[in-house]
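Quick review question:
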């Protein structure tokens, strides 16, 4: 549903869903690493993971900002996929923002090829406003 190779380190970031995923059945999972080695997987278990994530969407004419958030210990993660056409050209910005316990933020950008279907799980994941 969302996948990209990172621009600088060429590792893969993906948000996956089990086949047949919907509101009560299946799971969603974040994965990061190389094709041969997953360095981070969240959550570890694959049972009703929908409540471990939060979605956020902002839209207006020619702009759509979508992100999927989760937290592991004191570190926040936000997989984002943004679109902006206000300049007259389609501009995309995707990646992951990592918020460290001291408040510093690291933004790791996707390369140019991105599978953009993050919005497809939106109806099954609680929104940030639901917290």
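Suggested answer, residue by residue:
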């Amino acid at each position: 549903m969302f996948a990209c190779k990172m621009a600088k380190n060429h590792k893969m970031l993906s948000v996956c869903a089990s086949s047949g995923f919907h509101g009560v059945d299946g799971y969603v999972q974040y994965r990061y690493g190389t094709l041969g080695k997953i360095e981070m997987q969240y959550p570890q278990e694959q049972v009703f993971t929908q409540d471990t994530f939060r979605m956020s969407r902002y839209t207006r004419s020619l702009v759509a900002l979508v992100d999927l958030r989760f937290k592991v210990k004191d570190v926040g993660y936000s997989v984002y996929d943004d679109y902006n056409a206000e300049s007259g050209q389609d501009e995309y910005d995707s990646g992951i923002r990592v918020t460290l316990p001291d408040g510093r933020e690291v933004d790791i950008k996707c390369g140019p090829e991105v599978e953009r279907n993050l919005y497809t799980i939106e109806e099954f994941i609680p929104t940030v406003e639901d917290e």
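Why it works: The chain has one domain: 2-130. The two ends are 24 Å apart (CA to CA).
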